[in-house]
Write a structure and sequence with these properties.
- About 40% of the residues lie in helices and about 15% in strands.
- By secondary structure, the protein is of the alpha/beta class.
- β5 (about 115-120), α5 (about 135-155) and β6 (about 160) form a beta-alpha-beta unit.
- The protein has a single domain (about 1-255), classed as Dihydropteroate synthase-like (TIM Barrel).
- It has an eight-stranded parallel sheet with strand order 6-5-4-3-2-1-8-7.
- The chain has helices at about 20-35, 55-70, 85-90, 105-110, 135-155, 170-180, 180-185, 200-205, 220-230, 240-255, and strands at about 1-5, 40-45, 75-80, 95-100, 115-120, 160, 190-195, 235-240.
- Bound molecules: 6-hydroxymethylpterin-diphosphate (HH2).
- 6-hydroxymethylpterin-diphosphate binds next to β1 and β5.
Length: about 260
């Protein structure tokens, strides 16, 4: 499945400001649905490294009309770290809580909706200041396994796990997690992977000594990692470039016996 990113923010790292206006955000959501998005992930707070906080009232103002407008047509997830915002979004029609804090399972349990647990080391404002692990794959898997157990015992039925690419991770950490996706798949829950346009792809795309390639030049890496993730067991990828990703991922999922000659 493909989850399309809809950041109703002025400052997201790759599309900040583009969909900040409600009408523009709704139009973009409808466009992603037409392009084949299975889920639209609506967020009102950037979690890019160094991002500042947003008040609860402002986050609600940003996202609720967009959630309400899209929810009758597509599955909507709400990308938030605030319980009250998640609750309000669910009331407006969201059926999946995309939780980079990994703390909001009680909201999902109370509302009977799905929950995505993502691993993050530290806080967005400081998470990229020299993150360290002894064994990043084991530590991320152990963390997510514990979160799954907590949510399970709290009564959440639909639980997703996400390694949190770029959230308190160096390029090596990100690459190791992608290489060992099988370990996440072994947790027995659907895996979500979100590499789209992230900084490590810009760094890989740049020549030696050059700054990271700008976000507009990260499509090749975004598609390659999305296809890699699906081929290695991810059930969903979270992306900005929905049309291109749907086309790429379809290659993984089409039944050769059913494909037109
Ligand atoms: N990454 C971002 C935001 N939300 N949710 C999940 N589950 N997994 C992720 O890796 C993830 C996420 C960051 O990307 P983006 O939304 O494009 O940027 P920003 O946080 O600046 O709005």
């Amino acid at each position: 499945m493909v989850m399309g990113v809809l950041n109703v923010t002025p400052d997201s790292f790759s599309d900040g400001g583009r969909w900040f206006d409600h009408d523009a955000a709704i139009a973009r959501g409808l466009e992603m649905i037409a392009q084949g998005a299975d889920v639209v992930d609506v967020g009102g707070e950037s979690t890019r490294p160094g991002a500042g906080p947003v008040s609860e009232a402002e986050e609600r103002r940003r996202i609720l009309p967009v959630v309400a407008a899209l929810a009758p047509t597509v599955r909507v997830s709400v990308d938030t770290r605030k319980a009250a915002v998640a609750e309000a979004a669910v009331e407006a029609g969201a059926t999946l809580v995309n939780d980079v804090s990994s703390m909001l399972w009680p909201v999902a349990a109370a509302a009977g909706v799905g929950w995505i647990a993502m691993h993050m080391l530290g806080e967005p404002s400081t998470m990229q200041d020299a993150p360290r692990y002894d064994d990043v794959v084991t530590e991320v898997c152990d963390f997510l396994a514990e979160r799954v157990r907590a949510a399970e015992s709290g009564g959440v039925e639909e639980i997703w796990v996400d390694p949190g690419i770029g959230f308190g991770k160096t390029m090596n950490h990100n690459l190791l997690l992608l290489r060992r996706l099988d370990r996440l798949v072994e947790l027995g829950r659907p895996v979500l992977v979100a590499t789209s346009r992230k900084n490590f792809l810009g760094r890989l795309a740049a020549g030696p000594g050059e700054p990271p390639a700008p976000v507009g030049e990260r499509l090749a890496g975004s598609l390659a990692t999305a296809v890699w993730a699906v081929a290695h067991g991810a059930a969903m990828v979270r992306v900005h470039d929905v049309a291109d990703t749907v086309q790429a991922v379809r290659l993984m999922t089409v039944d050769p016996g059913m494909a037109a000659a």
